[in-house]
Design goal:
The chain has helices at residues 23-45, 47-64, 78-93, 97-116. By secondary structure, it is mainly α. The chain is elongated, with a radius of gyration of 31 Å.
């Protein structure tokens, strides 16, 4: 039986060339940075609105889970209106804009529920 011969070849050479970025790439990167900054600025300016929407969603979830049945509340405005009044007082006396906007969201939900009842 004949002996087998293994021929090994060296791997092909690959040249990595460092080249400066093209003008298009530089412009695209600059525009992307500005867009990211603009999106961050928009989110910062709307954080109070987002707090109001989040508060309304959280109280809807809590009501669906039955968590609002056990909290003490003012009978005339219900548990959601009571939470809204507490948030309003907290925003007013602690000078918190976020708490004031949370109160806006909660009181909006309370007024909607009062108007929707027949």
């Amino acid at each position: 039986m004949a002996a087998t011969t293994v021929i090994r070849r060296p791997p092909p050479r690959t040249a990595i060339v460092a080249r400066p970025p093209s003008r298009t790439r530089v412009v695209v990167a600059r525009v992307a940075r500005r867009a990211g900054g603009a999106a961050l600025a928009a989110a910062q300016s709307e954080k109070h609105t987002l707090a109001a929407v989040f508060a309304a969603g959280a109280v809807g979830y809590a009501q669906r889970q039955g968590m609002l049945e056990n909290i003490p509340h003012i009978q005339a405005i219900g548990p959601i209106g009571t939470l809204g009044a507490v948030a309003w007082a907290a925003g007013r006396f602690m000078r918190s804009r976020v708490a004031s906007h949370v109160a806006t969201g909660l009181l909006s939900v309370a007024v909607y529920k009062a108007a929707a009842e027949e």
